[in-house]
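Please supply some protein, with fold tokens.
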Amino acid sequence: MKRIFFSAILCLLALSPLYLKAETIPASDNRLTFVGRTQVEGTDVAFDWTAVYCRIAFSGKTLTMRASDVKPDVDPATAATKHTYFNIWIDAPMSAEPHRIIEVAGADSVYELIDPQYLKKSKLKTHQVIIQKRTEGEQGKVTIHEFATDAKGIFYSAEPLRERQMEFIGASYDCGYGVDDTSRKAKFTPETENASRSFPAILARYFNADYMVIAHSGMGAARNYNSKFAGYHMPDRYLQTFDEDSTLRWSPEGTGMKPDISVIYLGGNDFSVSMQPSYEKFRDGYYRLIRSIKDYYGEDHPVLCVSSKSHSTLLDYMREMVNTCPMPNVQFLATLPALHLSTDEDLGANFHPNYLGHQKFAYAYIPYIATITGWGLQDNPVK
């Protein structure tokens, strides 16, 4: 099946005759499996963090999604957010190559998730579909209202949460910022951000795990890129249900999300442009984040802290911070991009890794995660 990009909205709900004769399922229905931080609002499910995904199982001749992507506190009729994109996989596992890409924008609109011609020709009686938000929270918050198939279709229980789970916390690298561009000199556009081609996605596929990404471009442990958002850093954002809304605190209770490991990839933005944090400020910010992780998942929950650049001061900070950490089961991994990323082949937009660069990053993580979790090395490709 060819990879196809769709940006057009099919139709408004009120104008869709197909939808009037449909078998529908509300987004909050437990036959659907959402992975990542979400908020149930009545029968709707809302989220804005990158990489959140939903598994759907159904039989039918069509599959559509009714969703909204609007700015809060603005008239929904005129309040389309920036650029929220989704990857879609049809009767196949998640991979670096989705079958479709759609843009969700505006209020209460219907989107075709599968080409009806594919369903007409398919010999499968039941179809498995995965949709994933490929852009980060800064690009938009989505509320899914319901899914629909034709009147004779049926929705089944999708694959539940997997036994293996992973959590990734970081900034632009975790988001797949600029990963779909092929030039390091290219300027970033939302279309080139793709969570399914970032190293967290590659690692989750390698280990056959479900995963969630809590990341926002430019964030640091104690200082953000170019000192943006002073006093508000990833340790603060990590506590939130929504990336772009600080008013609602997240709790893992009742979500089924209990990762086997949390991987933190922060520090590069702390040491970007002009001023740099003192060791005490950096350590305290990082410890605050680790403390929150332990509060969520337990004192013995493993945390892997990764040095994000070959900056000597950052490496010294990280090494000292982990070696003297008063909390148990905190590990350190130093990755040195200068040694394993080629500026010609491995970089995408704004000097961020492209897909090949992210694959190389994933290779560096695998032995550590395999050992810490006890999962061992897998007989799976790193892609």
